[in-house]
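Hello K.,

You asked for the raw outputs rather than the summary table, so here they are, unedited. I folded two proteins back to back in the same session to keep the settings identical. This is the first:
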Amino acid sequence: MPGNQRKSALIMGGSGLVGQSLLKAILLENYYTEVTLVLRRPIDLKCDAQVKIIMIEDFEALDLYVEDLFADHVFCCLGSTMKKAGSKSSFEKSDLVYPLKIATINQMNPNFKNYLIVTSQGANSQSLVYYNQVKGRCEQALLALNLPGLKIFRPSLLLGDRIEKRWGEVFFKFLIQAVSTPLKALGISSFWSIDATIVANAMLQVAMNEKQHTVFYDAKAMVQLSQ
């Protein structure tokens, strides 16, 4: 660690594909002296002693944990689906309201340097696809905050073993992988899907680079960063 300076990290969404992979990558790198993992429910995770786990069942109560959520680098891996959320209102909370809330909380943190968030390849506030529209609105709201550092990662379909199976994703992953294999054999690159570990490694590499400005990363850029 440069100059033995203490660095802290906050992971929101530690039970998801990217969140779990990110935690593993962070612990292997040994770059942070403090790591805080926020969860809504207990899950089976192998954590180092340096990891502080905060259970917050209702994210409407985030304001009660303000100083616990302070970090130099904030990694937001929150994300849901309409089916899991159950309604548009609940989906917007998990994919727009709460990510924005975490960012505004850290604006009160004098040591806050970078906010790194996973959105979506098709994120667009004007999209006719509701999922992509919400992701795009989240990006626009974060940009308006003028954070010291904002890194937006736009992955394609995420690959990996989820705690909860999303059978629609399972089907599309099978279909995409079936198409991608022959394309790669022909020397044609395909970024229709990306492994969650690649996204996590890219996020960590960007965070450790310490640059404080706004950058968007697509799947191709993430693959290059993680190599």
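The second followed immediately with the same parameters:
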Amino acid sequence: MKSRLRFIIALGVAVALGTWLILTALGATGATKQHVGPAQAKGSGEYRLNGIVAPGAPTDAAGAAATSQGLRFVVRDKKNPAETITVVYRGTVPDAFKSGREVVVDGRYDGTTFQGERNSLVTLCPSKFKEMKGPNPHDKGMPMDGTSPQPGT
């Protein structure tokens, strides 16, 4: 009887710890991912900001981010480039950071400036795929490798 009670208690503790671990891992950031336009519309709050670095970003971004003033750059919305937010960021800067690159940064928007959380800046790799112009030949039964279709297919 004692061993069964111990087993049930141990199992309950294991389930509680596992649940806590999963919730902690999934809830690492309370920020919701926002593009520039929606973040401005919602106003102040914590966000994971996603956008494109506007022209004029400092060439010595890592050096600027290490100063007390921080790295100051403008992020524009991917769909509406006229919508922009000024970001102030301190911490490590990815080597790929430059104007025109897509970035994601966690932080807090106060209605005028986005204060990036230290060491949260990430640059996203540009897509290697190009948008197809015109109709897709695969939709008409053409093979994707450019060869002619086999007779009877």
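The chain has a mean pLDDT of 81.

Happy to rerun anything if the numbers look odd on your end.

Regards,
P.
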